[in-house]
Amino acid sequence: MATPAVTVLMPVYNGARFLAGAMESVLGQTFGDFELLAINDGSSDQTAEILASSRDPRVRIVENGRNLGLIASLNKGLDLARGDYVARMDQDDLALPKRLEKQVHFLSASPRTGLCGTWFRTFGGTRSTVVRPPARADDMAARLFYESPLAHPTVMFRRGLFAEHGLRYSHDFPNAEDYELWTRVARITELANLPEVLLQYRRHDEQISTMKKAKQDETVRRILLRQLETIHPHATGPERDAHVAIVTNRIPDESGFTVDYVESWLTGLVRRNKALAVFPPEAFSRALSIVWWRYCSSRSSVPGVIRAFYASALTRVLPLKNKLGILAIRAMAGAARS
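Request: output the structure for the sequence above.
Response:
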């Protein structure tokens, strides 16, 4: 059997509800040189029957026999993948027809980039939203300081790069294993997002982010603190707690944080990173300006916040060409006049 250019890696666990549509979206791609590696992780519904019903020779089914969990299934898929590139796909999402074609073309033409995602559109909830994470390598590296700039089911990466560096999903970071992995991938290669919607991301009440939110939050906290240590290794316990609250914009009302404290903390991080250059300095300033904008825009009615927003050096590097930033400033200006 000829080696495919792409392995589409799709772990499945009790996915019968949406699986057929996800498979059809992959099998209908304009780029045809791929294998769809579907790993049935001990499903107890009709998943096995749906997988077996496909007569497309590009579908390759692996049965775990029992439920091993997502991380084990992903790592098993990395070991079994045969393509030069590995594209992730979830059992409930829909890949747009040119997704694989465009990602393969981009990676083939971009030797310094080892992994790329795409913009995506959400559906299945109360409203559909186009999500546009940063596309440039420096902005993505900086954004990893406090969040993942990649949607896991949009990602395609070079299999050889992962094999060479022993990159695998870590069992120590459940429910945020992708974010943690990207922080390690970014140390050895550039990341990118194609600035085009190439996947439809389904929102529903069975997702991990909904069902295991508390555990996911704790895992993300550990990633955030590990990222903080790269530029501020001696932060105190209270500073670490404050940092997580600030960058996630989950500051309790009773915390006593002031707008001046938040601004001082963020500008201090900018100075530390400028001295150490752990993250691209200009992109890092832009990334923290987004954190500052989120904080201020969510508290625009609090006395002093609008004044502090306009006075801060962080506001001066806010990417005004970004539509979201422009709308936020206009909204905040309107609140200040009222």
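Residues 322-327 have pLDDT under 50 and may be disordered.
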